[in-house]
Structures are given as C-alpha cells and as structure tokens.
Write a structure and sequence with these properties.
Blueprint lengths: L5 H27 L8 H4 L12 H11 L1 H4 L23 H5 L3 H10 L13 H14 L31
Helix pairs in contact: 3-7, 6-7
Length: 171
C-alpha cells in the first residue's frame, strides 16, 4: 500500500479547488454575459418593399402566432409560454422607444438570421413573409413605419424662419 505524502495531498486539494473555481467562473460569465445584436450596416439600410397598407395583418398575425408567440407572447410583450426558458429573454416588441431605434432592415435581419435562443426564419418564412412580419411587429408597438430618424424632415432648410437676433442685455 502506498502512502501519499501530506504535501502531495495538499497540492491535489489546491488543484481541485482551482478547477472548481474555474468552472464556477465560467458558468457565471456565461450566465451574465449579454451580447447585443450585431447587424451589418448594409442590412440596417435595407428598405421594406411593403407599405403598411399593402400588408394583410390578419394573415401576418397568424404567422406570428404560429412562429413567434410561444416566446414573444400573443401581444408581443416577451411573455410567451416558453419565454422563461430562454436567456436572454425574448424582447418586448410593444416598447415604442426600443422599436423606434430599429430600422426595418434591422428587424428584418433579426428575423432572418436569428440569434440564440431565437432561431433563424430564413427557411421557415419566405422573404415577403419576413418583410410583412416587420410591419406586423411594428404594429405591436404602434410604430407601423420606419423610425423617425430615417424619415426626411418635413421642412426644408430654406423654408425655416431665421431665429431673431439676441438682444444685448448690457445696456
């Protein structure tokens, strides 16, 4: 029978503790590390070929219910029956502030490419269905068109009235 020296036993305990600490750190890092969507610039700039008036929201809503509502919920709040199983949790599609920050091209890209845990819908929905889904998703937040930042200003620079000169208060 061989005996293990106290120094070797202590070394094994230290190594085991280090391995355990490394495992805990890895799990903690993975659990709390949130990565934002990275959408290529050319995808952000893509324009939706459909106008809100061209889309049959009833048909598109059925696609949403079939493919998206389990996670995003029937009303788009991210509270679907499977939402709690995922990290990150599904986005709240009813938040107009968040939705106004996204271009139609960004939403289309997210639907098309997906990102864990959200699947890609490139092969599950046609290109037209994905573009129509963009309009439906915007309707959940009452933002049926592209965000204001992408729209052209209503008033041209030539039509603006100049500001009156500031008066000198040192009189």
């Amino acid at each position: 029978m061989t005996t293990i020296s106290p120094g070797a036993l202590r070394l094994r305990k230290i190594l085991l503790a280090c391995v355990f600490a490394l495992i805990c750190l890895s799990i903690g890092f993975a659990a709390f590390h949130k990565t934002p969507w990275v959408v290529p610039q050319d995808a952000k700039e893509r324009k939706n070929p459909f106008k809100p008036a061209d889309v049959n929201l009833t048909v598109t809503k059925q696609l949403y219910i079939d493919h998206c509502s389990n996670c995003h919920g029937d009303t788009g709040k991210g509270d679907g029956s499977e939402a709690m199983m995922y990290d990150p949790t599904p986005s709240d599609l009813t938040d107009p502030v968040r939705m106004n920050k996204l271009s139609d091209g960004e939403i289309y890209y997210q639907i098309t490419e997906g990102r864990k845990p959200m699947p890609s819908f490139r092969k599950r929905l046609t290109e037209d269905e994905r573009w129509q889904m963009v309009i439906f998703v915007r309707s959940l937040a009452d933002t049926p068109t592209a965000p204001p930042a992408l729209k052209k200003p209503d008033v041209s620079l030539e039509d603006r009235k100049p500001n009156p000169p500031l008066e000198d208060k040192k009189k």
